[in-house]
Amino acid sequence: METPMTEPLLDVQTIDAFYGPIQALRGVSLQINPGERIALVGANGAGKTTTLRTISGLLQPTNGSIWFDGKPIRGLKPNQVVQRGIAHLPEGRELFSGLTVEENLRAGFWSQRKKKEANFTAQRDRVMDLFPILRERAKQAAGTLSGGEQQMLGVARALMSNPRLLIVDELSLGLAPKIVAQLFEILREVNEAGCAIMIVEQFVHMALANTDRAYVLAKGAVVLEGRSAEMLADPKLIASYLGEEAAGAAEKPVPTKRPRKTTAKTAAKTRKR
Ligand SMILES: Nc1ncnc2c1ncn2[C@@H]1O[C@H](COP(=O)(O)OP(=O)(O)OP(=O)(O)O)[C@@H](O)[C@H]1O
Ligand SMILES: [Mg+2]
Predict the structure, then answer these.
(1) Over its length of 273 residues, how does the chain's per-residue pLDDT go in tens digits?
(2) Domain limits of the chain?
(3) N or C: fewer beta carbons within 10 Å in the chain?
(4) Strand order in the sheet with 10-19
(5) Whose CA is nearest to atom 14 of ligand 1?
(6) Measured in angstroms, how far is the CA atom of residue 25 from the centroid of ligand 1?
(7) Is residue 220 helix, strand or coil?
């Protein structure tokens, strides 16, 4: 997708964040355009999760501003941020393991202003169409699902709030490559329906293959920003920012079954030769 000339959907400007005396973010700025897919990559401890937490109101930055859909959201509580249209699937999913699949989906629906039963049913059905396995497991406790099914439920629960921006921290965590590819495929469908997506992903090649643009974080600061396809096609660039291991991984085939019709596809083909 070409970068449109419209106002960004999300505009993060020079935020700093601390955990007690430890500064975790240093002047982080990033933008997401409506309908865009963004990756945030970087080494362990670079500040990826912290960046997501400041956006969703779980951690308050000490400096800077955050705008969503033309309005300031810095200082809002997490529930207010969800109501504005940002859904965050945290690292480790944080499902209610003793509750059923359907009850977890209901928990994701609370933010809707018109909490009518008919609206819940309609939204649940839309979300379950994306994950037919969850329909089969509707009455099963979330804690008894497989890891992949739990991650599907995590994404599904986030989508229950009907977000304009979906933020996902480590989609692939602990999952088999085939399941991860399925999940990325679903994110692609969600994005094609108009929802912007921001992912944090430890597997750099997956992150770049499934997004339009990417930001690289190091020691709490943005050190590189660019088109994902261009970064993917440049292992030396990846190695210089993220190490040889990440660059090696970027040479492997892209895990998605159906890569998007972007230049990422062309880049992937070129690399395979
Ligand atoms: N609750 C906390 N208390 C103190 N320091 C923290 C806390 N959470 C994170 N940090 C520190 O903040 C920095 C950024 O952490 P963050 O979790 O954002 O990194 P990350 O890029 O998500 O890493 P990973 O890839 O390991 O998930 C790290 O130095 C980390 O040790
Ligand atoms: Mg993290």
Answers:
(1) 455 567 999 999 999 999 999 999 999 999 999 999 999 999 999 999 999 999 999 999 999 999 999 999 999 999 999 999 999 999 887 899 999 999 999 988 877 666 677 788 999 999 999 999 999 999 999 999 999 999 999 999 999 999 999 999 999 988 999 999 999 999 999 999 999 999 999 889 999 999 999 999 999 999 999 999 999 998 888 888 887 777 766 555 444 444 333 333 333 333 333
(2) 10-85+163-272, 94-162
(3) C
(4) 22-32, 10-19, 63-68, 71-72
(5) 47
(6) 10
(7) coil
User: Looking up tokens 């002047």, which residue turns up?
Assistant: 27
Span from the CA of 49 to the centroid of ligand 2 (angstroms):
4
* Amino acid at the residue 142: A
- Among 25, 28, 30, 48, residue to substitute to test ligand 1 (most atoms within 8 Å of Cβ): 48
For domain 10-85+163-272, give the CATH superfamily.
Answer: P-loop containing nucleotide triphosphate hydrolases (3.40.50.300)
- Ligand 1 nearest-atom number relative to CA 51: 18
Determine whether the shortest distance from the Cβ of 191 to ligand 1 is under 6 A.
Answer: no
Q: Establish whether residue 48 lines the binding site of ligand 1, counting it when its CB lies within 6 angstroms of any ligand atom.
A: yes
Q: Give the ligand 1 atom nearest the CA of 202.
A: 25
* Ligand 1 contact, 204 CB (< 6 A): no
